Amino acid sequence: MTRARGYGLRTALGRLVLGGLSLIPNLAWSAADPIPALAPKMDFVPTQAGAYQLQRIQPSPDAVLLNAAAGVRRLSAYTRGKVTLLTFFYTYCTDSWGCPFAYQTMTGLRERINADVDMRSRVRFVSISFDPKHDTPDALRVYSKGLAQSQALEWQFFTARSMAELMPLLDGFGQDVRVELDAAGRPTRAINHMLKLFLIDSDGVVREIYSLAFVHPEVMLNDIATLLMESRH
Amino acid sequence: MVLAALLAVVTGTASADETCNSPYMSGLIKGQEDYVHVWTLGVEGMGDGYDKLVTVDVNPRSNNYGKVVHRLSVGGRGEAHHMGFTDDRRYLWAGGLNDSKIYVFDVGSNPARPKLVRTIADLAAKSGYVGPHTFYAMPGRMLVGTLSNAKDNGGATGIAVYNNKGGFVAKYDIPTQLGDVRGDGYGYDIAINPSKNVMLTSSFTGRENYMRDLGGLVKDEAAMKKFGNTMVLWDLKAMQPRQIFSVPGAPLEIRWSLNPSDAWAITATALTSKLWLVKQDGEKWQAKEVATIGDPSKIPLPVDISITADGKGLWVNTFMDGMTRYFDLTNPEAPKQTYAKQTGRQVNMISQSWDGKRVYITSSLLEKWDKGGADNEQFLRAFHWDGKELTQAFEVDFAKEQLGRAHHMKFSAKAASAR
User: Fold this and answer.
1) What is the full DSSP assignment across A23-42?
2) pLDDT per residue over A90-128, tens digit each?
3) Contact A229/A49 with Cβ under 8 angstroms?
4) Any chain B CB within 8 A of the CB of A204?
């Protein structure tokens, strides 16, 4: 969400990570800013869990990823069987309305879910890094310490073996991302992305997508509870 | 009498500009826009005759300022009408009110040269609705507000939801009854407010009317009664209707104030020439008439509105008299007209930049409702607005350029242009 010149991840991160690729500007981005109205504000009583149906938006895409122990895993093993809240991040992200906000939201939800014995065994969180080069399995291990090892709510952290393997996953989820450039047009380490959290049902179908204006933890808890009620039936 | 009746049904179908996008998508353009994309109705015998996306360079620093830099025909003529960006602003969805096709253009890769990447042709088969009008971005998906239905081409219709990859997700009928309150089931625009968890819809008329020659339509009393007179408030999360408001005279475009401290929306009624405010009153919401646009007895036909980014002002275009009016919305309960100028012989859409300094106007309403002869101007006109006066910056003559009828506009920007 930082305001800076940006280029498509396919190109700029390709150069950053893979090296040698020419930069082709993703032109539509740079003159655009997010607006204050994007900041989440909740001025309503959430609709009661189970009193509504969440749309079946799209199947959750699959990919081969690396976990924090450098093990090769298929994502589909972690988007089924439980209700999954999935997001993309990078460990050194500092945008207050980006990854840190998502992290804060997820840790808050984790506390609430852990307090519910039934819910915590049927829900998982998944965080996937945008940056395979810097976010190595070791970096994930440090970042996720105390979260992934929790005995309660399952929280999986992944990175990818390469951008080539990650890009179809980003495209599949519709997670846009771009790399900031410095004054000389060189890629920096800052990765601009539209914050999105994906809620996936136990059959692997994306049922809700929360961008910043929709990050209302009370509503998210109700949505999770709604999907859990649905799966009981 | 006949003229009044004729004028009374020439209602606009319109909406477009930076402050009228779904504000909940990423990347609103706050600086200088580089391109205006105009979704243009084809005219038989004019160029290839097809509907097309016309891209105009609007950056004053460009050598091509005010020039058409790209035209992309879709190979058919289906009453091109409105457009909307996906939530990531990479793709522009554009609908045909007659053939019910939805075209998806890639404007993210190179906004100077949009590409057609997908055509969605299953709206009627999947939803039963026809006449895709409003495209309103939600995260990962598009709400498609429709005008009609495949069964009888009347005004009963609903909202179709597609995911960003073009897959059908769900449909929601506009209600005809909620408790003791009756609705008409008609649809037109969509606008949401996530901080209140509400969505508003408005109402127009069915395909049997909007695709009918105007001369015949106005002589048909039964048909003349088939225009929407309602707005509906929905629970956005549940996508369930909660309240039906009586808003007589075809309420069209809906604009929420984008000021985070506001919680109201405004609309204009085409047939009755009024501004209506929708506002929360305790737990319930209410719609009330707050202003008159021009002289309703002369049927000026407000067809498009554009709210300023701070929610303090509103542009209103009236089709029949070609007037562009500005209302001071400092008190949304009592808007006051502070400026008016004739900007064309017929004007429909009005779009403003985020900073309000640039205003763009197009001319076409519907193929069979546009004026005839010399009054049938077809253009994109750009104006500067200094808070006191609209000054024309350039014009693209869509007839001379053999393009067609200029309708909906959307902005795009290239690298670093807004710095």
Assistant:
1) P---TTSTTEE--GGGS---
2) 888 877 777 888 888 999 999 999 999 889 999 999 999
3) yes
4) no
Instruction: Mark which residues 156-185 of B lie under 8 Å from A by CB.
Output: 161, 163-165, 167, 169-170
Other beta carbons within 10 Å of A25: 20
CB atoms A47 and B237 under 8 Å: yes
What is the value of pTM for the model shown? 0.91
**C-alpha to C-alpha distances, A64 to A70, A72, A162, B25, nearest whole angstrom:** 12, 7, 10, 29
Distance from CA of A139 to the nearest CA of B (A): 29
Measured CA to CA, the distance from residue A224 to residue A219 in angstroms comes to 9
Beta carbons of B112 and B63 less than 8 angstroms apart: no
Q: Which residues of B touch A44 (CB under 8 A)?
A: 195-198
Residue B205: how many other CB atoms lie within 10 Å: 28
Give tens-digit pLDDT for B290-335. Answer: 999 999 999 899 999 999 999 999 999 999 999 999 999 999 999 9
Interface of B with A in 271-330 (CB under 8 A): 309
What is the C-alpha to C-alpha distance for residues B235 and B240, in angstroms, rounded to an integer? 5
Using CB atoms within 10 Å of the CB of residue B180, give its burial: 0 to 12 exposed, 13 to 18 middle, 19+ buried: exposed
Is the distance from CB of B96 to CB of B75 less than 8 angstroms? Answer: no
Q: C-alpha distances in angstroms, B54 versus A9, A143, B70, B143?
A: 28, 49, 6, 24
Task: Using CB atoms, pick whichever of A30, A46, A210 lies closest to residue B139.
Answer: A210
- Planar angle of CA B328, B332, B336, nearest 5 degrees: 35
CA distance A133 to A90: 11
Q: Which of A50, A98, A132 is nearest to A215 (CA)?
A: A98
Please list, residue by residue across B133-171, b when 16 or more beta carbons sit within 10 angstroms of its beta carbon and e when fewer do.
bbbbbbbbbbbbbbbbbbeebbbbbbbbbbbbebbbbbb
